[in-house]
Amino acid sequence: MDGMDHGHGMGGMASPAPPSSSMTNGTMMMHHKMMMHMTFFWGTKAEVLFSKWPGTNTGMYYVSLLFVFALAVLVEWLSHCRLIRAGGSDVVCGLAQTLLHAVRVGLAYLVMLAVMSFNAGVFLVAVAGHTVGFLLFGSKVFKKKSDVDDKVSDLPPMSC
User: Fold this and answer.
1) How many CA atoms lie less than 13 Å away from 146 in the CB half-sphere?
2) 98 phi and psi, to 5 degrees?
3) Residue 130: what pLDDT?
4) Which pLDDT value is given to residue 56?
5) C-alpha distances in angstroms, 95 versus 88, 91, 99, 154?
6) For residue 86, what pLDDT is reported?
7) CA dist 25 to 20, 39, 84, Å?
8) Which of 34, 5, 30 lies closest to 19, judged by CA?
9) Is 118 in contact with 28 (CB distance < 8 Å)?
10) If DSSP states are collapsed to H, E and C, what string results for the chain?
11) Region labeled Disordered — which residues (predicted)?
């Protein structure tokens, strides 16, 4: 036992950075020359959700922005809609609610992963999508008076 380091001091075992990557100006350079930003940036050359998507085509970048916007609106719709009606079996209603919750959380995580591309345009359309979705489905602006009074919300009450 004497003279053993047990890994506490790491006795000369420094872990060098992997040779296939290096850090430059907040950007990680991978061995296949892909740029991964570590800070927010403006531009149409970004990877959103999938490898090499939208690529270098500016038109596809705008399609990806539209996709993220639609995902954010869909998350808000699922957060505020009443797809399950009372009167059915409690077990079936509970399972359906659980499934809808899983879909909503999965889509919300997709929006979060898109924002993690650190592209400022993606961030802005995600916030705009959640805002428009809440305006359409969560606020009192587009609801009938009877819908507002009858609905028992899962969300905490907000005063306007």
Assistant:
1) 0
2) -65, -40
3) 97
4) 80
5) 12, 6, 6, 17
6) 73
7) 17, 9, 51
8) 30
9) no
10) CCCCCCCCCCCCCCCCCCCCCEEECCEEECCCCCEEECCCECCCCCECCCCCCECCCHHHHHHHHHHHHHHHHHHHHHHHCCCCCCCCCHHHHHHHHHHHHHHHHHHHHHHHHHHCCCEHHHHHHHHHHHHHHHHHHCCCCCCCHHHHHHCCCCCCCCCC
11) 1-21
- Residue-by-residue pLDDT tens, the chain, 160 positions: 555 555 444 444 455 555 555 555 555 555 555 566 788 888 888 888 888 888 788 889 999 999 999 999 999 999 998 887 777 788 888 898 999 999 999 999 999 999 999 999 999 999 999 999 999 999 988 887 765 555 555 555 544 3
Say how far apart CA 39 and CA 35 lie, in whole Å.
Answer: 12
Which amino acid, 133? G
Q: Which two tokens stand for residue 98?
A: 């659980």
